[in-house]
Recover the amino acids of this structure.
């Protein structure tokens, strides 16, 4: 009978062989906890959960101060992650994962909410400032560069100029808004595929302006 430890080694080596080495990180941003699940600020979590589901998995392995899953996209190993550090401190989890896998900043794709876009609208950018998105800003600071690709998910503008922005981003999506988001999440995955393949212009064509 085979030694039990040999069996564990065989299982481990088989599992690791199923997925290519991690070369990209896709980080969906949001806040942990049931109370934040369907809030506007959690659009990044919602989008990356859709990506994981399309790959037949869930993002549920605790590592790097985040929930993670490793998948293949376009034949490339990709770490999907949802930092559990709260939005404004997302940089620590993402930078720790980047150091572990030796992933350069330009191979990190951040998915976050954008209050300047209508619900469900998408924007892809190759680099640039955080534009007031504090989670993205924390990642930029942690990585020491603005050269980080990002996909912004529109969550709608606040309904009145006097409406507190914090209250707005922590408000829940309506049923109709959730439907609009879901209808556009397929393009998030396609955008990721394009970025990973080196075709960021193609990602912009698919995601921007619709």
């Amino acid at each position: 009978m085979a030694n039990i430890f040999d069996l564990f080694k065989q299982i481990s080596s088989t599992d690791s062989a199923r997925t290519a080495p991690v070369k990209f990180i896709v980080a969906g941003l949001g806040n942990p906890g049931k109370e934040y699940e369907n809030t506007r600020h959690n659009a990044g979590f919602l989008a990356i959960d859709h990506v994981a589901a399309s790959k037949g998995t869930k993002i549920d392995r605790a590592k790097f101060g985040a929930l993670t899953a490793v998948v293949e996209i376009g034949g490339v190993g990709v770490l999907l992650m949802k930092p559990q550090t709260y939005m404004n401190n997302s940089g620590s989890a993402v930078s720790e994962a980047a150091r572990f896998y030796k992933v350069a900043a330009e191979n990190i794709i951040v998915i976050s909410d954008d209050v300047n876009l209508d619900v469900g609208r998408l924007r892809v950018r190759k680099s640039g400032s955080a534009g007031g998105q504090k989670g993205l800003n924390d990642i930029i600071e942690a990585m020491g560069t603005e050269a980080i690709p990002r996909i912004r998910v529109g969550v709608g503008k606040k309904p009145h100029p006097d409406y507190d922005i914090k209250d707005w981003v922590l408000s829940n999506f309506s049923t109709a808004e959730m439907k609009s988001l879901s209808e556009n999440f397929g393009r998030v995955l396609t955008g990721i595929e394009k970025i990973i393949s080196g075709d960021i212009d193609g990602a912009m064509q698919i995601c921007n302006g619709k």
